[in-house]
Records
---
Amino acid sequence: MKPSCRRVIVVEGKYDKIRLESCLDATVLTTDGFRIFNDTEKRALLRRLAAERGLVILSDSDGAGALIRSHLHTLCGKEGVVDLYVPPVKGKERRKSGASRAGLLGVEGISCEVILSLFEKSGLLSDRPLPAPRYTKTDLYRLGYFGKDSSAQKRKAFLSENRLPAELSSNAFLEIVNLLEIDL
Protein backbone atom coordinates (compact mmCIF):
# COMPACT_ATOMS: atom_id res chain seq x y z
CA MET A 1 0.00 0.00 0.00
CA LYS A 2 1.32 3.43 -0.96
CA PRO A 3 1.55 6.21 1.62
CA SER A 4 -0.97 9.00 1.16
CA CYS A 5 -0.94 12.79 1.16
CA ARG A 6 -4.17 14.59 2.01
CA ARG A 7 -3.16 17.90 0.44
CA VAL A 8 -3.52 18.48 -3.30
CA ILE A 9 -0.17 18.24 -5.06
CA VAL A 10 0.52 20.62 -7.95
CA VAL A 11 3.13 19.68 -10.55
CA GLU A 12 4.04 21.11 -13.95
CA GLY A 13 3.00 18.41 -16.41
CA LYS A 14 1.34 15.08 -17.05
CA TYR A 15 4.55 13.03 -16.76
CA ASP A 16 5.22 14.60 -13.36
CA LYS A 17 1.67 13.64 -12.37
CA ILE A 18 2.21 10.06 -13.52
CA ARG A 19 5.43 9.84 -11.47
CA LEU A 20 3.76 11.20 -8.30
CA GLU A 21 0.75 8.91 -8.65
CA SER A 22 3.09 5.93 -8.96
CA CYS A 23 4.66 6.86 -5.60
CA LEU A 24 1.75 8.22 -3.54
CA ASP A 25 -1.95 7.92 -3.02
CA ALA A 26 -2.83 11.57 -3.62
CA THR A 27 -4.70 14.02 -5.79
CA VAL A 28 -2.23 15.48 -8.27
CA LEU A 29 -3.08 18.39 -10.56
CA THR A 30 -0.95 19.91 -13.29
CA THR A 31 -0.29 23.51 -14.24
CA ASP A 32 0.23 22.36 -17.85
CA GLY A 33 3.47 24.29 -17.73
CA PHE A 34 3.18 27.96 -18.59
CA ARG A 35 -0.51 27.57 -19.56
CA ILE A 36 -1.31 28.35 -15.92
CA PHE A 37 -0.48 32.00 -16.64
CA ASN A 38 -3.50 32.31 -18.96
CA ASP A 39 -5.95 29.67 -17.70
CA THR A 40 -8.22 31.75 -15.47
CA GLU A 41 -10.45 28.80 -14.59
CA LYS A 42 -7.59 26.58 -13.43
CA ARG A 43 -6.11 29.52 -11.53
CA ALA A 44 -9.43 30.00 -9.70
CA LEU A 45 -9.60 26.27 -8.94
CA LEU A 46 -6.08 26.26 -7.48
CA ARG A 47 -6.88 29.30 -5.31
CA ARG A 48 -9.98 27.51 -4.04
CA LEU A 49 -8.09 24.28 -3.37
CA ALA A 50 -5.33 26.15 -1.52
CA ALA A 51 -7.93 27.70 0.77
CA GLU A 52 -10.05 24.57 1.28
CA ARG A 53 -7.58 21.67 1.16
CA GLY A 54 -4.05 23.05 1.09
CA LEU A 55 -1.54 22.65 -1.73
CA VAL A 56 1.88 21.12 -2.10
CA ILE A 57 3.87 22.68 -4.93
CA LEU A 58 6.48 20.35 -6.43
CA SER A 59 8.12 21.81 -9.52
CA ASP A 60 11.31 21.10 -11.39
CA SER A 61 14.52 22.66 -10.06
CA ASP A 62 15.10 24.70 -13.22
CA GLY A 63 14.21 28.28 -14.12
CA ALA A 64 10.80 27.36 -15.54
CA GLY A 65 9.90 25.49 -12.34
CA ALA A 66 10.92 28.48 -10.23
CA LEU A 67 8.85 30.84 -12.39
CA ILE A 68 5.75 28.62 -12.16
CA ARG A 69 6.22 28.23 -8.38
CA SER A 70 6.50 32.00 -7.97
CA HIS A 71 3.34 32.50 -10.01
CA LEU A 72 1.46 29.98 -7.87
CA HIS A 73 2.54 31.83 -4.74
CA THR A 74 1.30 35.11 -6.19
CA LEU A 75 -1.94 33.38 -7.09
CA CYS A 76 -2.57 31.41 -3.87
CA GLY A 77 -0.49 33.18 -1.25
CA LYS A 78 1.62 31.35 1.31
CA GLU A 79 -1.26 30.30 3.60
CA GLY A 80 -2.10 26.65 3.05
CA VAL A 81 0.76 26.15 0.57
CA VAL A 82 3.77 23.91 1.21
CA ASP A 83 6.79 24.00 -1.09
CA LEU A 84 8.79 20.87 -1.80
CA TYR A 85 11.92 21.11 -3.91
CA VAL A 86 13.30 18.46 -6.24
CA PRO A 87 17.03 18.16 -5.60
CA PRO A 88 19.20 19.24 -8.54
CA VAL A 89 20.21 15.91 -10.08
CA LYS A 90 22.15 15.90 -13.36
CA GLY A 91 20.68 13.72 -16.07
CA LYS A 92 17.90 13.35 -18.62
CA GLU A 93 14.47 11.76 -18.51
CA ARG A 94 14.12 8.43 -20.30
CA ARG A 95 11.44 9.64 -22.70
CA LYS A 96 13.56 12.57 -23.91
CA SER A 97 16.31 12.44 -26.52
CA GLY A 98 18.50 14.93 -24.67
CA ALA A 99 18.91 16.61 -21.32
CA SER A 100 17.00 19.78 -20.46
CA ARG A 101 18.68 23.15 -20.93
CA ALA A 102 19.72 23.09 -17.27
CA GLY A 103 20.84 19.45 -17.59
CA LEU A 104 18.79 18.45 -14.54
CA LEU A 105 16.16 15.79 -13.95
CA GLY A 106 12.65 17.06 -13.42
CA VAL A 107 9.99 15.61 -11.13
CA GLU A 108 9.30 12.84 -13.63
CA GLY A 109 12.93 11.65 -13.50
CA ILE A 110 13.32 11.57 -9.72
CA SER A 111 12.97 8.22 -7.96
CA CYS A 112 10.00 7.42 -5.75
CA GLU A 113 12.38 7.00 -2.82
CA VAL A 114 13.57 10.61 -3.15
CA ILE A 115 10.03 11.91 -3.66
CA LEU A 116 8.73 10.03 -0.63
CA SER A 117 11.61 11.29 1.50
CA LEU A 118 10.69 14.89 0.56
CA PHE A 119 7.11 14.30 1.69
CA GLU A 120 8.16 12.39 4.80
CA LYS A 121 10.59 15.10 5.96
CA SER A 122 7.82 17.67 5.57
CA GLY A 123 5.37 15.62 7.64
CA LEU A 124 2.95 15.31 4.74
CA LEU A 125 2.70 11.51 4.55
CA SER A 126 0.08 9.37 6.16
CA ASP A 127 -0.18 5.60 6.44
CA ARG A 128 -3.95 5.88 6.29
CA PRO A 129 -5.46 5.55 2.83
CA LEU A 130 -7.36 8.49 1.43
CA PRO A 131 -11.09 8.29 2.06
CA ALA A 132 -13.14 6.45 -0.54
CA PRO A 133 -14.61 8.83 -3.10
CA ARG A 134 -18.23 9.81 -2.56
CA TYR A 135 -19.08 9.35 -6.24
CA THR A 136 -17.98 6.83 -8.85
CA LYS A 137 -18.08 6.84 -12.64
CA THR A 138 -21.25 4.74 -12.36
CA ASP A 139 -22.86 7.50 -10.28
CA LEU A 140 -21.93 10.04 -12.95
CA TYR A 141 -23.55 7.86 -15.58
CA ARG A 142 -26.67 7.25 -13.49
CA LEU A 143 -27.03 10.99 -12.81
CA GLY A 144 -26.51 11.91 -16.47
CA TYR A 145 -23.08 13.55 -16.20
CA PHE A 146 -21.36 10.90 -18.32
CA GLY A 147 -22.21 8.62 -21.24
CA LYS A 148 -25.44 10.24 -22.42
CA ASP A 149 -26.23 12.63 -25.27
CA SER A 150 -26.70 15.64 -23.00
CA SER A 151 -23.91 14.76 -20.53
CA ALA A 152 -21.38 17.33 -21.75
CA GLN A 153 -23.93 20.14 -21.50
CA LYS A 154 -25.06 18.99 -18.06
CA ARG A 155 -21.44 18.83 -16.82
CA LYS A 156 -20.72 22.28 -18.27
CA ALA A 157 -23.77 23.81 -16.54
CA PHE A 158 -22.82 22.18 -13.23
CA LEU A 159 -19.21 23.35 -13.54
CA SER A 160 -20.29 26.90 -14.32
CA GLU A 161 -22.74 26.93 -11.39
CA ASN A 162 -19.95 25.76 -9.04
CA ARG A 163 -17.29 28.11 -10.46
CA LEU A 164 -15.10 25.29 -11.77
CA PRO A 165 -13.19 24.98 -15.07
CA ALA A 166 -15.66 24.43 -17.93
CA GLU A 167 -13.57 22.03 -19.98
CA LEU A 168 -13.02 19.22 -17.45
CA SER A 169 -13.17 15.70 -18.82
CA SER A 170 -15.55 13.31 -17.07
CA ASN A 171 -12.59 11.81 -15.14
CA ALA A 172 -11.34 15.23 -14.02
CA PHE A 173 -14.92 16.23 -13.20
CA LEU A 174 -15.27 13.18 -10.96
CA GLU A 175 -11.94 13.85 -9.25
CA ILE A 176 -12.74 17.52 -8.50
CA VAL A 177 -16.31 16.82 -7.31
CA ASN A 178 -14.98 14.20 -4.88
CA LEU A 179 -12.05 16.35 -3.82
CA LEU A 180 -14.18 19.40 -3.01
CA GLU A 181 -17.01 17.22 -1.66
CA ILE A 182 -19.62 18.90 -3.86
CA ASP A 183 -23.07 17.36 -3.95
CA LEU A 184 -24.32 16.22 -7.37
---
Amino acid sequence: MSQTLNKLFLICEQMISSCDMDYNDLKDKFIDTTFFDDYNNTRIVNSFLFNFSKLQDKIGAKLLKQLLYELKEIDSITLPMIDVLNRLEKLDIVNKDDWEKLREVRNLLAYEYPFEIEERVENIGLVLESYRVLKDIYTKVKDASKRV
Protein backbone atom coordinates (compact mmCIF):
# COMPACT_ATOMS: atom_id res chain seq x y z
CA MET A 1 0.00 0.00 0.00
CA SER A 2 1.34 3.41 -0.94
CA GLN A 3 2.03 6.20 1.52
CA THR A 4 -0.76 8.19 -0.12
CA LEU A 5 -3.37 5.51 0.44
CA ASN A 6 -2.12 4.81 3.93
CA LYS A 7 -2.31 8.52 4.81
CA LEU A 8 -5.88 8.72 3.47
CA PHE A 9 -6.88 5.79 5.67
CA LEU A 10 -5.30 7.44 8.71
CA ILE A 11 -7.17 10.68 8.06
CA CYS A 12 -10.45 8.79 7.61
CA GLU A 13 -9.84 6.82 10.81
CA GLN A 14 -9.45 10.08 12.74
CA MET A 15 -12.67 11.42 11.26
CA ILE A 16 -14.49 8.17 12.02
CA SER A 17 -13.27 8.31 15.60
CA SER A 18 -14.75 11.81 15.97
CA CYS A 19 -17.99 10.79 14.26
CA ASP A 20 -18.28 7.70 16.44
CA MET A 21 -18.08 9.77 19.63
CA ASP A 22 -20.88 12.06 18.47
CA TYR A 23 -22.88 9.21 16.94
CA ASN A 24 -22.79 7.33 20.24
CA ASP A 25 -23.94 10.46 22.07
CA LEU A 26 -26.85 10.91 19.66
CA LYS A 27 -28.08 7.44 18.70
CA ASP A 28 -29.98 6.69 21.91
CA LYS A 29 -31.38 10.17 22.53
CA PHE A 30 -34.94 11.14 21.87
CA ILE A 31 -34.55 13.90 19.30
CA ASP A 32 -37.57 16.14 18.98
CA THR A 33 -38.23 19.85 18.58
CA THR A 34 -37.17 20.57 22.20
CA PHE A 35 -33.87 18.73 21.74
CA PHE A 36 -32.15 21.89 20.51
CA ASP A 37 -33.16 23.87 23.60
CA ASP A 38 -30.02 22.41 25.17
CA TYR A 39 -26.96 23.98 23.56
CA ASN A 40 -24.87 20.88 24.30
CA ASN A 41 -27.17 18.89 22.03
CA THR A 42 -26.77 21.46 19.28
CA ARG A 43 -23.00 21.34 19.68
CA ILE A 44 -22.93 17.53 19.37
CA VAL A 45 -25.18 17.58 16.30
CA ASN A 46 -23.09 20.27 14.63
CA SER A 47 -19.89 18.36 15.35
CA PHE A 48 -21.37 15.13 13.98
CA LEU A 49 -22.70 16.78 10.82
CA PHE A 50 -19.38 18.53 10.18
CA ASN A 51 -17.34 15.35 10.60
CA PHE A 52 -19.81 13.25 8.60
CA SER A 53 -19.60 15.71 5.69
CA LYS A 54 -15.81 15.89 5.83
CA LEU A 55 -15.54 12.09 5.96
CA GLN A 56 -17.85 11.67 2.99
CA ASP A 57 -15.83 14.28 1.06
CA LYS A 58 -12.52 12.60 1.86
CA ILE A 59 -13.78 9.16 0.88
CA GLY A 60 -15.44 10.38 -2.31
CA ALA A 61 -12.92 12.90 -3.54
CA LYS A 62 -9.72 11.09 -2.62
CA LEU A 63 -9.91 7.60 -1.15
CA LEU A 64 -12.10 5.88 -3.75
CA LYS A 65 -10.05 7.20 -6.66
CA GLN A 66 -6.73 6.41 -5.00
CA LEU A 67 -7.88 2.86 -4.28
CA LEU A 68 -8.84 2.28 -7.92
CA TYR A 69 -5.56 3.79 -9.07
CA GLU A 70 -3.53 1.50 -6.83
CA LEU A 71 -5.58 -1.52 -7.85
CA LYS A 72 -4.59 -0.55 -11.42
CA GLU A 73 -8.23 -0.21 -12.37
CA ILE A 74 -7.77 3.38 -13.58
CA ASP A 75 -4.83 5.29 -15.07
CA SER A 76 -5.61 8.68 -13.55
CA ILE A 77 -7.28 9.96 -10.41
CA THR A 78 -8.96 12.70 -12.45
CA LEU A 79 -11.71 10.31 -13.54
CA PRO A 80 -15.27 11.67 -13.10
CA MET A 81 -17.06 10.36 -10.01
CA ILE A 82 -19.72 8.52 -12.03
CA ASP A 83 -16.98 6.48 -13.71
CA VAL A 84 -15.35 5.82 -10.35
CA LEU A 85 -18.64 4.60 -8.91
CA ASN A 86 -19.34 2.40 -11.93
CA ARG A 87 -15.92 0.76 -11.62
CA LEU A 88 -16.28 0.29 -7.85
CA GLU A 89 -19.69 -1.26 -8.32
CA LYS A 90 -18.30 -3.73 -10.89
CA LEU A 91 -15.64 -4.68 -8.35
CA ASP A 92 -18.39 -5.10 -5.69
CA ILE A 93 -16.77 -2.51 -3.43
CA VAL A 94 -19.37 0.30 -3.47
CA ASN A 95 -23.02 0.18 -4.42
CA LYS A 96 -23.63 3.20 -6.64
CA ASP A 97 -27.19 3.68 -5.33
CA ASP A 98 -25.93 3.74 -1.73
CA TRP A 99 -23.40 6.42 -2.60
CA GLU A 100 -26.03 8.49 -4.41
CA LYS A 101 -28.30 8.30 -1.34
CA LEU A 102 -25.41 9.55 0.80
CA ARG A 103 -24.94 12.48 -1.56
CA GLU A 104 -28.66 13.28 -1.38
CA VAL A 105 -28.53 13.33 2.42
CA ARG A 106 -25.47 15.56 2.34
CA ASN A 107 -27.26 17.95 -0.03
CA LEU A 108 -30.20 18.09 2.38
CA LEU A 109 -27.80 19.17 5.10
CA ALA A 110 -26.24 21.85 2.93
CA TYR A 111 -29.60 23.53 2.43
CA GLU A 112 -30.92 23.04 5.94
CA TYR A 113 -31.81 26.11 7.96
CA PRO A 114 -31.48 26.01 11.76
CA PHE A 115 -34.85 27.65 12.37
CA GLU A 116 -36.71 24.82 10.58
CA ILE A 117 -36.57 22.53 13.61
CA GLU A 118 -38.89 19.77 12.33
CA GLU A 119 -36.80 19.43 9.17
CA ARG A 120 -33.61 19.41 11.21
CA VAL A 121 -34.92 16.64 13.49
CA GLU A 122 -35.86 14.54 10.46
CA ASN A 123 -32.47 15.13 8.81
CA ILE A 124 -30.58 14.04 11.92
CA GLY A 125 -32.31 10.67 11.73
CA LEU A 126 -31.33 10.37 8.07
CA VAL A 127 -27.72 11.27 8.79
CA LEU A 128 -27.43 8.81 11.66
CA GLU A 129 -28.67 6.06 9.34
CA SER A 130 -26.42 7.29 6.52
CA TYR A 131 -23.38 7.24 8.76
CA ARG A 132 -23.77 3.49 9.22
CA VAL A 133 -23.88 3.11 5.42
CA LEU A 134 -20.80 5.31 5.03
CA LYS A 135 -18.91 3.23 7.58
CA ASP A 136 -19.88 0.04 5.73
CA ILE A 137 -18.54 1.54 2.50
CA TYR A 138 -15.34 2.52 4.27
CA THR A 139 -14.93 -1.02 5.61
CA LYS A 140 -15.35 -2.47 2.12
CA VAL A 141 -12.81 0.00 0.73
CA LYS A 142 -10.35 -0.88 3.47
CA ASP A 143 -10.85 -4.59 2.79
CA ALA A 144 -10.33 -4.03 -0.94
CA SER A 145 -7.08 -2.18 -0.23
CA LYS A 146 -5.59 -5.48 0.97
CA ARG A 147 -5.48 -6.50 -2.70
CA VAL A 148 -3.00 -3.72 -3.43
